[in-house]
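Our consortium's second objective concerns turning raw sequence data into structural hypotheses that experimental partners can test. To show how far this objective has progressed, the report includes one record in full. It was chosen at random from the queue rather than selected for favorable results. The single chain below, 425 residues long, was entered without modification.
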Amino acid sequence: MSYPDSLYAATAAPALTAPTLAGDVTCDVCVIGGGYTGLSAALHLAERGYDTVLLEARRVGWGASGRNGGQLGAAQVDTQPDLVQRYGPERARLLWQVAADGKALVKRLIGSHGIDCDFVTGHQACAVKPADLDHMKAHVEFVSRDYGYPHYRILDKAELEAVSGARCYVGGMFDASAGHLHPLNLALGLARAAADAGARIFERSPVEEIAGGDPAMARTAEGRVTARFVVLGCNGYLGKLAPEIAPRILPADNYQLATAPLPADLAARIIANNACLWDTHRQVYYYRKSPDGRLIFGGGLGYPGREPKDLAAVVRRHMLKIYPQLSAIPIDYAWGGTFANTMSRLPDVGRLAPNVFYAQGYTGHGVALAAITGQILAEVVAGTAERFDLLAAIPQRRFPGGPALRAPVLTLGFVYVWLMDRLRM
């Protein structure tokens, strides 16, 4: 079972070779899911001395962790003033700290484990409308003043255009501490680090059933894991494994492309500061340059598992709204992946049974948030629940109709996003 075709798969480091689970295995903790959540949990559990088994249905990093935009930010989805209004100053500050800790954790793991994933600092948010820029200014002022965060600065229209090469924005904010990376190589590096720490990883081992109890159990078609604890980190690929929490997330596909390497004159004018960018279109466009000078561009929404026939053409139309000067540049790769949204726009973290924990729903901010929630799940297994309780206490509403009505809910969502973007043009 190979990785989906993408620029990331084409430039990936050698993949971990892991067996398929066969027979009965006993351990302290069974982690289900080989994305950032599960890999981080397995690594931190193994480093604490727990006998840890990780089960991945396909390959580690096969899902969104190996296909995302590679952007490592420092904040939750919503601005900090909005979080203060919704949750109060104390809880909002803790939520900020969780996200900031996630960014710092990823950077630390890259350094301490020697993960070669092309990490580059520089992270830019681009405002489509003046009201969007006002929100950014309020966020930057708040976290700089109240939290002492020194890395943000506001860019006016002229400066943003000069560094991005895009003329469609009114300004933005730059974070010198956040950045971007090769997402699949990060996942593969975390898998190697977890294995080196003693975690046993099994690929091509989809879990068909989990059960709490003393002990807990996870069953695949060819084997069974008996464990003191189970940690569930499946996110948008949860499927029918845990129907209790499936209605809390709405999986959707997002699409990306990678151009051919840009000619030198264009490459010098497109993202001249080599940051990654995202914008305030309702469906969010996000993009950056690869080390070999390609533009990696994300845009377009779809149903999980139903990619358009000409995916490259779909994403290219979005790209040309931002960079019409790239109309003659060939597209070398196009791919999609599934992410999971929550109604709160914050991660959904909790427990299914006294010894079965889960985390899911990063709403497009999974590089930092999945890594930190994996660490938090390892903490709660070890008996430290402070950060776990913070996230578990966030009210999480169910999406209307649950999994059975996801198609019409997504259709309404896509229409809303399209209309809002049209009205804002």
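The partners drew two points from this record. The mean pLDDT is 94. The CA atoms of residues 247 and 402 lie 4 Å apart. Both points have been shared with the crystallography group to help prioritize constructs.
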